[in-house]
Amino acid sequence: MRLREIRNGLIAVAAGAMPFAAFAQQQAEGGQLHGNFSTDAQYYNEDDDIGAIVPAQRLAYNAWMNLIYTSGAFEAGTRVESYEPSLAGYPAGQPYTGSGIGYRYAKYKLSDLEVTAGNFFEQFGQGLVFRSYEERYLGVDNAMDGVRVKYKPFRGIYLKALAGRQRFNFDNGQVKGVGLVRGADAEVNLAELLDSLWTCRGNLIIGGSFVSKYQEDRDPLLELPQNVGAGALRVNFTSLRWDLYAEYAYKINDPNGKNGFIYKPGEALLLNATYSSKGFGASVGAHSFDNMFFQSDRAAPTPFDLNINFLPPRAKQHTYNLPATLYPYATQPNGEVAAQGELFYKFKKGSALGGKYGTKLAVNASVAYALDTTRLGAADDTTRRLGYTSRLFGASDRQYFQDINIELRKKISDSWELAVTYLNLAYDIDVIQGKPGKPVVYTDIIIVEGLHKFSDRTSLRFELQHLSTKQDQGNWATALAELTFSPHWFLAAMDQYNYVGNPELEAKGQEALHYPIGSVGYIHGGNRFQVNYGRQRAGIFCVGGVCRQVPAANGLTLSITSTF
């Protein structure tokens, strides 16, 4: 009976996409229609050994289709979404249910003026005061619904203005938050503005932003600000080899559920410098964030809902399985001081270390600390409501995160390429993952990656990973192999093995577990099909420093993507 349920469910998902794909291939008279379709469907099995999630409906899926019509200066688009029900653990914030329109807009551009009505994504600077964006596989989507205007009054001068409400969740269609967001941004590109009068070999770009949110005050006990404003200034100097960037943001007092309803203003300062030349690159950066949670609903239920801004992490975004899913770092908006440095060097071909094909070396280090704060409130309630005092880049002794990693990548022959990576991590799992009382995790990770080309069309890529720690879940080992038959087929198999290796953890009843999973995929034109079967380990899934918990699961997964 279960096999029949799986077959019927997956056929239904795939068949539902066919009418849309056929329709989208037709060009409308005077314009063009294009878009894409994607779905992830999973059938869940029981697996008590790993504590697998088994929803009431064994078959779940996330599906969406974008349709975009363009004709001259006019563009319109819509996205149909379906979650009947959504995959377990998805999305990061409020649940998505049902089917309906999740995104729609109309836009036209006339000369130097562009106007968008409906949904849109936008970002000011690095996003310290405003970023509306989507990260589909995290389930993060704070799309604006309103009006946006872009205007270029003169060469080198760029203006933006917007107003609207943010997407909150999805219930047979998009559901908007209660807060109203308004913002404006201006940017001046001096090399473009001054043209021949600009004699500097580099370019200087100066920008500024202001964003405000409005939410009615209905609190019976506190007098809360209904209008909360935030502003930012930025400067970016670029030349042939240098890229220097600085941005400062300030937010007026914004009592909310994430800061304990204190009336302290927030501020952020981000600095970054990059140097590059042939075969060498270096970058160093630092930031200080203080009380910078900025949501259009002061009572937003989770940290993922209705975020107006985005605070980029100062840590390497790893792609290897163990460091990426067990101990990734997520920015702490209420307060952190972080720094990161990276060096890249390519040893020349023919040198002692470069050999016949050259050798690439990358070294990266990042740290994050809690802010050094002084709590207020000993005298009276008014003082207590200010929360605490602090200063920019005033770090405390509490270290949230440390990552020191070295990667050596070398081509051995025409058919072989190898890479070796070592990571040393310190991870305050209490704060970062919200596990109170858990000790800081100290771990060493070593990874060996190889690529062997059998021919121009057939290749094998493999990874061997090992993580050792005496805290949290103990030791892990991962083996991965991917066989590609270009241009259409690929096969993959992976096993993650938590063999603990710590008498204290084993004494508490923790047992060794394997998490095997196999995949087969087919690619043809703009279509991609992939089927997975096996165990999914509970862990963290991150993109760009934004993370969500992924529950343990066992089952069959089908993924389809199509672009037309």
List keywords for this structure.
mainly beta, 564 residues, 33 strands, 25-stranded mixed sheet, 8% helix, globular, two-stranded antiparallel ribbon
- Beta-strand segment tally: 33
Q: Approximately how much beta-strand content do the residues carry?
A: over 45%
Q: How far is the first residue's CA from the last residue's CA?
A: 36 Å
Enumerate how many helices there are, as a single number.
Answer: 6
Describe the sheet with the most strands.
25 strands, mixed
- What global shape is seen? globular
Structural class: mainly beta
Helix content: under 10%
Mean of the pLDDT scores? Answer: 89
- State the low-pLDDT regions, or none: 1-28
Write the layout of secondary structure elements.
Blueprint: H1 2-24, E1 32-44, E2 59-71, E3 74-83, E4 96-110, E5 113-120, E6 122-123, E7 131-132, E8 134-135, E9 140-141, E10 144-154, E11 157-171, E12 174-176, E13 180-189, H2 190-194, E14 203-214, E15 227-238, E16 242-251, E17 266-277, E18 280-290, H3 321-326, E19 335-347, E20 359-371, E21 374-375, H4 381-384, E22 388-389, E23 395-411, E24 416-427, H5 429-432, E25 441-453, E26 458-469, E27 475-485, E28 489-500, H6 503-507, E29 513-524, E30 527-536, E31 539-543, E32 546-550, E33 553-563
Parallel strand pairs: 4-11
Antiparallel strand pairs: 1-2, 1-33, 2-3, 3-4, 4-5, 5-10, 6-7, 8-9, 10-11, 11-12, 11-13, 13-14, 14-15, 15-16, 16-17, 17-18, 18-19, 19-20, 20-23, 21-22, 23-24, 24-25, 25-26, 26-27, 27-28, 28-29, 29-30, 30-33, 31-32
